[in-house]
Fold Caffeine-induced death protein 2.
Amino acid sequence: MSKPPSRPNLTLQFCFNQTALRDFLRASRGLIDDSIVQNLNALMTPSRKPWDPASTAERQIRPVERRPTDPQACQSFKDDILFRSWQTRSDILNYCARVALDPSDPDLALKEVESAMERERVVNERLDPYSGRFFPRETRTEILASVIRNERSVEGIIRSRTWALVNERCGDAGVGWEDALNKWRTDQEAHR
């Protein structure tokens, strides 16, 4: 069964290095969420019924019965692997979102100077119709905020898909992934 990648050091450099941030999130999703079927298959106990050669005499469209997954193994997988991985990714996205709110971004002053210079510029659109265009440069915190928004959207989609498969294999508890993760978080806090 896959183990989630180790948690990176949360630093400003890590957040502003989009490649490192996205690579970590991609690797974590790849090991846990993208391979959820294989991870859940690893939880299943081997067949207790010996193989019957007569079972190949007729074609079966779908399995007659699905082997049940051990409830204890499912809960252990959710608690030790799945939720820990999700929590690590949430912590990283929350930290980087706080970094993106930094009001002391050095690019912000440069952006304000460029905007002031653009307001003072005289534009004759009859001579050059494209001279009136101004595309202000995005600050690194604005870029980071955009990356975080996109990654949170991806997380929501992936977690919904993963949770649907977990519920299918481990038994539908009738609880959404957000509620299950929040319950796990409160249980973790209680055990500290």
Summary: The chain has seven helices and no strands. The mean pLDDT is 80.
